[in-house]
Structures are given as structure tokens and as C-alpha cells.
Amino acid sequence: EMPVGEAAKKVFGATGANLLYDFLVSPIALITAVLYWELSWFGILLVILPLLLIRYSYISKSQLEHANRALLNVLIKTIETRDPYTSGHSIRVSTLAGWIAEELKVASRQIEDIRTAALLHDIGKIEPTFAQIIRKPGVLTDEEYEIIRAHAVKGAELLRELTNLPDEVIRGVRNHHERFDGTGYPDKVAGLEIPLSSRIIMMCDSLDAMLSDRPYRKALSQDAVRDELDRCSSTQFDPDVVQAVIDGDIITKAVALVPKPTPEEAAMAGF
Q1: How far apart are CA 159 and CA 218, in angstroms?
Q2: Cβ count within 10 A of residue 73
Q3: What pLDDT is attached to residue 49?
Q4: Are 258 and 212 in contact (CB under 8 A)?
């Protein structure tokens, strides 16, 4: 009882990738048929053994990736414990990034890379120098601000040295503070030269900040956030990403993700 179009999408994949994979793997089927024709069941064994080795290698690689991701999650939580107001921030940014990427009809593999880059976007703040500045009350000096700005580059360098993550993830982390008009950092790239993952993270990072309480202000209303996105479209934000946020009602979903402060936290913040 499923509509034909929906069934075709499940069989072929959202981008038709399943058809491509079937085409690429078809020589194995042909080789198997020829070997069976010539060597009977011994020919089948000649095909199965290398396939089992490939499967074992794939499983080992998958387990290593899961272990690395678990370690990176621990590092992210360690960073965020330094500031109670950013607790859970990276996970929320990662969730929002996935929703926006889906709204933009991005391929499933790239969506996963975008989620990973969003989760790790602040990992450069793991160094003790950043902890001291993050805890500092009041306004930062110019020197301290420059140190904080360096976290994007340091995060990318750390990931490149310690992981085998795709280049898309590392570039997403490095450039997540680039602005669409080219006035961001560290590379001052503009427009579509900025990796899509970075453009999405810039949006999600800002959304979570605007919708969260801070020591110096309460969270903005949804209407105020929409006005801010409209004002900053094509300057700070990619207009296509802004449109995806509006079309997908991402702001409402983002509000639901943000934890509400306890009465004690609200009293300490002066709310």
C-alpha cells in the first residue's frame, strides 16, 4: 500500500546511489556465475573467501570509527563542563545540523559528515588556555579574543593529527566561523567557497546561542530569532540555509532541544 514514488525512493536511495552501487558490484555476480559454471561449488568458495575477508576488514574499520567517535564525545563533554551555559551545546548543534542538511536534500553520507563536524566544531577549546579564558568574568581583552578565535584552526589541526575523519569534517570544523560575506575567520572565504558543513554549523551555533539563556541576557523569542536571521541573511548566513531553517521550522525544533534552567540557575543568572 506504499505509493510507487516512495517505494522507488527506498529501493533506489534518495539520490539514486543504490543503483550506482548495484552497477559497480555487478562484475562480482558475473565472475561468480562464470566460476560456478567452470568449477562448480569450488568456484563459489573462491569468491566467498575474499568477500569474507573484506567483510571482516569493514567490521574492524566500523568498530574503530565507533571507538573514535566515543572518545571524541568524551572530549566534547570535558570541554563543555567548563561552562555550565554551554552544556550540551555541541550535541544540540549536531542535531540541528542534521535537520538542516536533510531539509537541503543533502546525500545521506554527507549528512553524517556534517553532523560529525558540528559535534566537533569546538574541540579546539580542549587546551587549558581556553579554559581560563572561558571562565573569565567580564569583557575579554583583544589578546584573549584572538586566542579564542584560534580554536577553529587548532580544532582542525587536532582532528587531522589524531583521527582519520574525512576532509569534509575537518574543513567544516576549521571554517565554521566564516561569514557568507567573507568577513569571518580564519581564512576569510565567502559564499559557496565556504564548505556547506561550515555554513550549516555557523547557523546552528548561532541558533543555539540565541535560544539559550546567558548570564547577561535571557534567550531570544522565536520571532526575534527569525528577525535576526532575516537581517543577517547573505551577510553572516547563507540565504539558502536561512530558507531551509524557515521551511523546516527548525527554530521551533531548536527551542525544544534547549534545556530549561532550574529555579536556582535562573536566580543565579538574575532572571
Answers
A1: 34
A2: 14
A3: 84
A4: yes
- State the Cα angle at 127 between 121 and 128, rounded to 5°: 135
CA dihedral sign of residues 206, 91, 80, 146: negative
Helix (H, G, I), strand (E, B) or coil at 232: helix
* Nearest-10 Cα torsion for 46, 47, 52, 58: 140
| DSSP three-state, residue 209 | helix
- Residue 37 and residue 35: Cα distance in Å, rounded? 5
Mapping DSSP to helix (H, G, I), strand (E, B) and coil, where does residue 234 land? coil
Q: Which residues have CB under 8 Å from 166's CB, separation 6+?
A: 113
Q: Which residue has the higher pLDDT, 206 or 77?
A: 206
Which candidate, 209, 244, 241, places its Cα nearest to that of 224? 209
Q: Would you say 269 and 261 are in contact if contact means Cβ atoms under 8 Å apart?
A: yes
pLDDT in tens, 123-150: 888 877 777 777 776 778 888 888 889 9
Lowest mean pLDDT among 21-35, 72-86, 149-163: 72-86
d(CA 43, CA 123): 51
DSSP-derived secondary structure for 20-63: HHHHHHHHHHHHHHHHHHHHTHHHHHHHHHHHHHHHHHHHHHHH
Tell whether the model's pLDDT for residue 205 goes beyond 80: yes
Query: What is the chain's mean pLDDT, rounded?
Result: 86
pLDDT above 90 covers a percentage of the chain that reads 44
Min mean pLDDT across 8-12, 57-61, 132-136, 246-250 is at 132-136
